[in-house]
Amino acid sequence: MVVPCPLSRPPTDMLVTVAQYDAIAAAYQGSKQLPFRRHVERHTLFEALGDIRGLSVLDLACGEGFYTRLLRIAGADEVTGVDISGEMIRLAERQERENPLGCRYVCCDAAEYQPEGTVDLVVAMYLLHYAGSAAKLLRFLKVCHAALSRGGRLVGFNDNVLNPPRGTVSWRKYGFLKTGPPDPQAGDPIRYRFTNNDGTEFEFNNVFLSPETYADSFREAGFKDFRWLGVSLDPAERGNPFWDDFLENPPVIAFTATR
User: Fold this and answer.
1) 231 with 259: CB under 8 angstroms?
2) What is the rounded distance in angstroms from the CA atom of residue 139 to the CA atom of residue 136?
3) Span 176-207, pLDDT tens digits
4) CA distance 251 to 231
5) Rounded to whole angstroms, how far apart are CA atoms 259 and 252?
6) pLDDT tens digits, 82-102
7) pTM for this structure?
8) Long-range pairs for 196-200 at CB < 8 Å and ≥24 separation?
9) Separation CA 29–CA 15 (nearest Å)
């Protein structure tokens, strides 16, 4: 079921991102088949989450619902996905119709989302690096905090602000390129260009904010125990030298915090 956001249109500061993701929605969905998604990203996320059976979950920046569905399959009792892109939500809803799991979707800017109640867990996959400013980052985090019951957790993934691109590392063999200033400052774009298994290419920018800005914003939003988490590799792939460059220079990073 798709629920519209109370806002009649997205805020001005998100219009470019909405158009961008509407245009690349199908290609972005295809990127979920790249090996690093399964063997690093997915493995790290669910290792960080632990047992989620019976939990209520809010999946912010859910995209086409890839992790929304996996969270439900992993045993979450109720899962709501929220994304600002109408095309992403349409793809998510189509999959729900074709394979009903009971997932609920809301088309809304995560910074403006008003939870109807609290949940046990908020998942934010690649949301926070779209903030663009400390003020918007704080808005994202306040929504996450308000959505959580006391003791609830926020877990997600982010561009690795601890390891900005230096021009000496290539992640091409993993299906993407990451470029940006070698010494990025607040507001600088970090560009990703993906090549899917079928040769389809797409690209997008996110925005750099310093690790200190993240730490300050989590604290100001009311979170405890904010931590960056190193990525980990699926045990089935350990010992495979293909992953050495990714693990030695991880382009993305996980995080966790508690309300």
Assistant:
1) no
2) 5
3) 999 999 899 999 999 999 999 999 999 999 99
4) 10
5) 23
6) 999 999 999 999 999 999 999
7) 0.92
8) 196/27, 196/30, 196/31, 196/33, 196/34, 197/30, 197/33, 197/34, 198/30, 200/27, 200/30
9) 21
